[in-house]
Amino acid sequence: MQSSGAAGIVSRTMTTPAKSNFDGKMDDFVIGIIVFVEPACKMLYTLFSIITDFADRKQITILPNGHLVSRASDYIVYNVEAAAIGKVVAEYGPSTKQGAIVGGQTSCKAPEIAAFEKYLPADVDIVSCHSLHGPNVDPRGQPLVLIKHRASQESFEKVEYVLSCLGSKQHVLSASEHDRITADTQAVTHAAFLSMGKAWHANLQFPWEIARYVGGIENVKINLTLRIYSQKWHVYAGLAILNPYAKEQIREYAQSVTDLYKLMLGGHKSELEERIKNAGRFVFSGRNESDELLLRDEVLDRFSLGKKPEKPTPNNHLSLLAIVDCWARLNIIPYDHMICSTPLFRLWLGVSEYLFRNPKLLDEVINTAIDDNTFRSDDLEFTFAARGWSECVEFW
Hints:
This protein is an alpha/beta fold. The protein folds into 2 domains: about 5-175, Rossmann fold; about 175-395, no CATH class. Helix content is about 50%, strand content about 10%. α4 links the parallel β5 (about 100-105) and β6 (about 125-130). α10 (about 270-285) packs across α12. The longest helix is centred in the middle third of the chain and has 28 residues, at about 175-200. The radius of gyration is 23 Å and the shape is elongated. One of its GO terms (molecular function) is prephenate dehydrogenase (NADP+) activity. Pfam families: PDH_C.
């Protein structure tokens, strides 16, 4: 049976554009990063790759395990997936240098903080963080959450100073506030895209080859679904399964999809219209007609994967209707979380807003949902998929 492994990176100096009281006072401040590699057979390959990549960087030292990183570093960051954070901190946490600062970059802070509290020595400060964007996104201007869980003000300011080199917008939250906001902004968003992908798979479809899925809002749906499915599975599984607030959101999204689909199937137009427009009023009531939309037509059409038809194919946009209905039922105003939103969430909110703040388009969608049965089987597969993902998370 193969075991897991960890490698470490130690940087003995740091550069940052920020001006602070620490300028010139942290030249000997050692930053350590513990990375997790599983299965262990990839450990040597990963270690060799890291050594090769940083061979010409004299200020960076590659160490073979997390114990050495923990003993040498003044600030240690666990760059480990949420599902593995417990066993990695249990292994290397007790070796932490006295008086050091420890944090993590997991997307779900509940298991991370629990591991730190359980396995780190009492004389270690805990200041965690989370960059709210993917690894291929430029961090400049993107939100970065800082969590002062158990630390002196001086330790917290040191972490602020270190991370200021990223150029991100820093926001201070508690661990529970972080998990609530990430659940509100990401859990349902991920569920929607995962459900779309599963439905297309069940129907043996490449959506960019079908006129219904080309142009406008559909471009965003397809591109973001492909992006999610191209990422590592643990990014989404960790949030859905380990975040204590995510199950409720995903369950409610599946219920909204099911309820709306039943209203469409039964031809209950007045009930469907009332429910959808009530949800829209709740979510978008704070937006004025003069407020600029987050997404415009020229942006929506920019990333088309197929040839746009001369006349758009009708679509009831069940996935979008359900997400706004879900937000309303959970009393979530998505604009309240914009300071800590991911690029993915802002795009999804943008297409939802594009639909609901266009009364003519929304009426067309409702009429299509009741009168057009062309894609009813697609909607059925989407409903199955949404409920399936919810059950996977619920019974984990």
